[in-house]
Amino acid sequence: MRAHCIDRPADLDVVRESYDQVADNYAHMVVTTGMGDVRRHPWLKASIDAFADSVGELGPVLDVGCGPGTVTGYLAERGLDVSGVDLSPRMIENARRLHPHCRFSVASATELDLGEASLGGVLGWWSLFNLPRDVLPQVLAHFARALKPGGHLIVGTHVGEEDAVRTEAYGGVPVRWTTHKWQPEQLVDLIEQAGLHPVAELRLPADEWSGPGVVVMAKRSN
Question: Cα–Cα distance between 60 and 37 in angstroms, integer?
């Protein structure tokens, strides 16, 4: 699955290898601690529920950067026609193990061949922050074109002024990736430039797992 119009991040292979390294620990933490499980976080669950209610009758939904499939599985339980993709083959192995009833495949957000107006909804749920600042707008525009009229995009990401280079994660596993942080206003502006109309925004303070975050939901009008 390749979207030729989107630039390939220079660090894509390094990021993939890093997520392969942490995939088992990450999946274990999700199962044992509830990290990333929206059912244990009322405001995040409300956001995903609102998204599900908005797109449920519109057709297929794609969870981009699905990790071990936690949100994909939740949306499937709600009756949505949802599938997940992730850059990391090992994350997808865990997703298939934990959610055998769901469909998963390996692909980067920059490699997706999405048909025009083919999806009812797209999620970028804390999964797009590794994309370089010049690549994220290209990916958002690709998502916007893939949405049907009335379809929705929901994006959650880290908020901040500066990027952060991670060298270990999820139990001290060595990794190498950059977290590109955005101010909420910047993210909303990028989504609008992609051709979508923002309909809701949720700002979140730091918690035990992460720094401050923002969730934005936006709609394709035509």
Answer: 22
pLDDT at residue 19, as a whole number: 97
Residue 126: φ, ψ to 5°: 50, 45
pTM of the model: 0.95
The secondary structure of the chain as a DSSP string is ---TTSPPPTTHHHHHHHHHHHHHHHHHHHHHH-TT-GGG-HHHHHHHHHHHHHHTTS--EEEET-TTTHHHHHHHHTT--EEEEES-HHHHHHHHHH-TTSEEEE--TTS----TT-EEEEEEES-STTS-TTTHHHHHHHHHHHEEEEEEEEEEEEB-SS-EEEEEETTTEEEEEEE--B-HHHHHHHHHHTT-EEEEEEEE---SS-S-EEEEEEE---
pLDDT for 65 equals 98
